[in-house]
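During the no-cost extension, the postdoctoral fellow (Dr. R.K.) reprocessed legacy sequence entries with the updated structure-token encoder. One reprocessed record is reproduced below for audit purposes.
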Amino acid sequence: MKEKYCELLFGFDCGSIAETQSEQAIKAFKSFISAQKKLDGEISLTGVSYNNVIKTVFDNKPLKKITAKDYRFDMSDGKGECRMLDAVSQLMDNVGERLSNTPEEERPSQVIVVINVFGRDNASKKCTHERLKEMIALQRDVYKWKFIIATDYTINMEKLGISPDDTIVMKRDSDDMFGPAFEQIDKMVTDIRNNM
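Re-encoded structure tokens follow.
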């Protein structure tokens, strides 16, 4: 394992973000990335955004190389559809396969998965809550991946077997739903990275 090297996997639910909240979401995400760039050690980002379509936004990109033009999330398509289960399971499968084909000395010493989801998954076709819960348990217990979920429904945490300590509850009715949530994500990711 490559010491002090972290890969951050991020799944971002765009299916129910109002157009008026999209700037707020991108601003919070940029602030989080900026804060993580300042820490010691290497970190790269692999991330997908999803509504009824899954898009790879970042593919194992070092944070220090992420620029303003890289932030391209397709916010709500007006349907409120979410393919979280398909997107996150696909993300984990793809990264797991890539890492198994990566020489041991080049693999990250820590993988952190951040799942952002609003409401319940309603458009996945390939994966179930039970299957994703099994995948999370395997990666957490065997490979020591860390999982964080940011959601407005704690039922998501329960269905995926993610601890309340690793859950950030986002408040939809607040003026800034994303700023405080991403500040918490930043603190949690920073704590994990500082203890690698």
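The chain has a mean pLDDT of 90. The two ends are 11 Å apart (CA to CA). The remaining legacy entries will be reprocessed before the final report is submitted.
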